[in-house]
Amino acid sequence: MRLAPVVLATSAAWAVQAHAAVTATLKPQSISLGRSAQLVVTVQNEESGELVLPDVPGLQFSSAGMQRSMSFGSGGMNSVVSHIYRVTPQREGTFTIPAISAGGTGSSKPLTLTVTQGSGNARANSGQPSPPSVKDSGPNAEEAKDKMAFLRVVLPKKELVVGELVPVQIKAYIREGITVARNGLPTLSSDAFTLNPLSDRVTKEREYINGVPFIAVTWTSSLSAVKAGEYPLDLTMPLIAKVRERSTRRNIVRDAFGNDISAPGAGFEDPFFDEFFGRSTEKDLTMHTAGDPVRIHEIPVEGRPADFSGAVGKFDITGSVTPAAGAAGDPLTLKLGITGEGNFNRVSTDGLGDGPDWKTYPPSASFAARDSSETSGVKTFTQSVIPLKAGAQQVPSVPFSYYDPDRKQFVTKRTQPVAVTIRPGAAPVAAALSVASADTAPAEPEPPKPGADGLMPDKTLPPAASSTLRALVRTPWFIAANAGMAGALVLGLAFRRLRARLSAKAPLSPKVLADRAVAESLNAMEAAMQTRDAPRFFQAARRAVQERLGAQWNLPASRVTLPEIRSRLHDGGGEVRALFETADEIAYAGRRFSTPDLQQWRDLVRTQLQQLAKS
Amino acid sequence: METTGFSFFHPALSQGESRTKRSGPFLKRFRLLPLLCALGLLLSLRTAGAGESASQEKTSAAALFNEGNAAMRLGRLGPAVLHYERAHWLAPTDDAITHNLRAAREKAAVTVPVVPAWKRPAHWLSLDAAAILGSLSLLLVCLLFFGAGLIPPVLRHSARGACGLLLLAVAFSATVLAVRWRELDRAVITAAAPAPARIAPADNAAPAFDLKPGETVTAGAAHGAFVHVRTGDGRAGWMASTDLEKILPDKTGPARRVSV
Question: Nearest residue on chain A to B252, judged by CA atoms?
Fold first, then answer.
């Protein structure tokens, strides 16, 4: 270590030999009033020179930081110091920024800034060259001076759409001499966002904020908006901070001349040397951001295409068919490539549908991300399609719809129709289809699989929510309806039982009893006629007439006999008398009757009963 | 005259020819009147119910599922289990919801009491499905009972058999609802940390045991800011009502939002 001053002295000599230069760049060179431009003045190989900014009426310069880098090459050590300024115009017009000099070693070329009339309410731009606007959740430059560490979340925009997936950067700014490592997953305070797992790749770079050097540790991921509304994007990040302390051993490090090389001014203040002379302590650190609100808009229902699957972003679709020629019945492969930026987990297509010329199977999908946040890439859908007809055919165009959050409208893009030549197949198409279905095993839509966090992925939201968290058995209308039905059933049963009981107790009139007995006798008479049982037939017929006459004469049926009939009817009632006499004859003499005879007797009995009922 | 067991009138009344002739047509004309009245009542109540449900906050199983995922990613296990439980209530056959609910419970280290064997048949149907089955069966029984006179004689025997089966369905549904009625009062511990169940509804009462976030309990009576809870293994205590949230909200209107 005693040789260290010698090495540094040699390096300084090389640096002096290197060429000193000052360059200035202004971006953009034309802005509207109310916005700011970024001026970067780069000073090469000039350590001691102070930068002198010119005074331009109408322009206001404010420092936004400084970056320093050193490199060793064949020409010696090369040091570059970049001073970053924010240039804010006070009025519109064309301004010329004169040459900027540093330490008398050189000067830059003059620059021109054109300021046009702005909208008036535009916010001053930060002047950062990176396209995403910084969601500055951490302290501002002045506050940063007093902070040892702070956290920022960088979002490309502050207005999102439900389902939209955007890349996000989580940047931890820490003072030099401190190293940090993740001690868990970052958590969001709002359920309106979901944060995907952070990428394994972590970048570290030195940034100057108001002249204060910070190490910016950046993790990348993607953020998805879950529900509409305005929510703060507050994030908590658990970290382990490792702080290096100056070692007491430095006091005994002396050079060859006995000087303390660890003393201030000896050239060893750089934290680089702490790696060798210091020791470190670890401490748990939880960093928070107090984010500005992010507005999340609902995807409109109106104008939503039928094939919209929830894709939000900017996409393009291409299609290709391989092979370009085939036989009818032989499967072709249709590949649909959807490229762009957005929520690829919602990008889906049914592919080509069945038609008179094509038999198709559901496509399978694969995704290749282009960045660590997996918000851009290409999703390829591979579909087996079978031509049913020979000749020059065209694979129809396939639509794909998505919602463009910048244009705030649905966009439907289509593939170009692809021409294919189909020759007649050797086997009938139907047979080929069955073979194809057996051989190619058309891929069924794959069920969703758990992600890295062990959870099944989010679902596509239905166009309109229609369910309520209410048990059916506790809804008043359901209870009342069932109670009404059960009550009606119980009342009906009770009513029926009551009527039956009342009817059993009610005395029936002789006429009703006679009618019932006559009906029973007629039924018995019919049954006897079917079996050609003449004795039973006449017995039933006589009983029916006895019941009827007994009711009319107020006599028991058993007392209605042939003598009684003669005495009451005198010369009338010949048919009735004949019936009684025939019945007696059959009962005692066993006379036989044919079926027509019995039918004739039945008609006669019915006629007599009707006449008796009328009389 | 042949009669069926479902006739609104006793067979003795319809045997008399003269009585049937006198009252039959009139009564037949109004035989379905009670049933029509019941149907009218049903429709009007359904309309009222639709109006009432329109005032409630609408949601969907997918939205609740996504909210559960968001809560899981934030490490809020209680709200995650609550959202998954609610999504499972709306879509009981959804495998993804079942998977994530199980994952959330495993992460929260909470267990679900095993259903006894004699209760398992009651879980063949969801509570809503059992309610619909019983209600429809009851409606069909009413139709058969009050409309028996309109059934052709050749179908009356089959109608009796169908009525018996429908009554069995009503009994099964009623049994399912009786066995699982307490599930309607299930609640999930949504506190950020293990919350104490106390022996009395007071802040200074001694804690009886602690419940983990994501644990499911049966909520009972409320007393002030405390709710009586009972765990699956029979322990009971009083918890602060802010530490738990019912899976099925009690009152009409939006469910209380659970911050994740």
Answer: A470
Q: What is the token pair recorded at B55?
A: 């005032």
Calculate how close chain A gets to B199, using CA atoms only, in Å.
30
- CA B28, distance to chain mean position in Å, is 38
Closest Cα in chain B, distance from residue A157 (Å)? 21
Least confident of A7-11, A47-51, A114-118, A244-248: A7-11
Q: What is the pLDDT of residue A421?
A: 80
Q: With a cut of 70, which residues of chain B have pLDDT below it?
A: 1-38, 41-42, 44-57, 251-260
The ipTM is 0.76
Cα separation, B136 vs B143, whole angstroms: 10
Position with higher pLDDT, A605 vs A211: A605
CB atoms < 10 A from the CB of B102, how many? 13
Q: Is A42 exposed, middle or buried (0-12, 13-18, 19+ CB in 10 A)?
A: middle
Identify the pLDDT of residue A49: 54
Please check whether residue A212 is in contact with residue A65, taking contact to mean a CB–CB distance below 8 angstroms. no
Nearest to A420 by CA among A442, A450, A393, A388: A393
The rounded distance, in Å, linking the Cα atoms of B193 and B183 is 24
| A35-64: average pLDDT | 77
Chain B residues near residue A515 by CB distance under 8 angstroms:
16-18
Selected residue of B13, B31, B69, B72 to mutate for chain A interface (largest A Cβ count, 10 A) = B69
3-state secondary structure (DSSP) of residue B14: helix
Strands A418-423 and A325-327: parallel
Q: Which token pair is A139?
A: 């302290």
Which secondary structure element, helix H or strand E, spans residue B239, and what is its range? strand B236-240
Cβ distance B119 to B4 under 8 Å? no
**Residue at A264: amino acid letter:** P
Per-residue tokens: B182: 């307490």
Nearest Cα to A152, choosing from A133, A166, A165?
A133
Mean pLDDT across chain A, nearest whole number? 76
**Closest-CA residue to A548 (of A581, A521, A575):** A521
In chain B, which residues have their Cβ closer than 8 Å to the Cβ of A466?
Answer: 58, 60
Question: Which residue reads 């929260």 in tokens?
Answer: B108
pLDDT of res. A230: 85
A28 cis-preceded (ω within 30 degrees of 0): yes
In angstroms, the Cα distances linking A455 to A185, A227, A464, A465 are 15, 19, 25, 23
- Is the bond leading into B25 cis (omega within 30 degrees of zero)? no
Give the pairing of strands A149-154 and A193-195: unpaired
CB-count exposure of residue A457 (10 Å: 0-12, 13-18, 19+): middle
Predicted local distance difference test score (pLDDT) of residue A140: 54
CA distance B197 to chain A (A): 26
What lies within 8 Å, CB to CB, of B204 at 6+ separation is none
Q: For residue A184, give how far its alpha carbon lies from the nearest alpha carbon of chain B (Å).
A: 11
The Cα–Cα gap between A97 and A106 comes to 16
C-alpha A307 chain-centroid distance? 15
- Say if the Cβ atoms of B8 and A495 lie within 8 Å: yes
SS3 content of chain A, % helix, strand, coil (to 5): 25, 35, 40
Cβ of A453 within 8 Å of Cβ of B67? The answer is: no
Distance CA B76, CA A478 (A): 36
In chain A, whose CA is at the least distance from the CA of B43?
A481
Query: Could you tell me how many CB contacts below 8 A there are between chain A and chain B?
Result: 185
8 Å CB contact between A328 and A387? yes
CA distance B147 to B28: 10
Q: Contact A35/A122 with Cβ under 8 angstroms? A: yes
Q: For residue B186, what pLDDT is reported?
A: 92
Three-state DSSP state, A373: coil
pLDDT at A250: 45
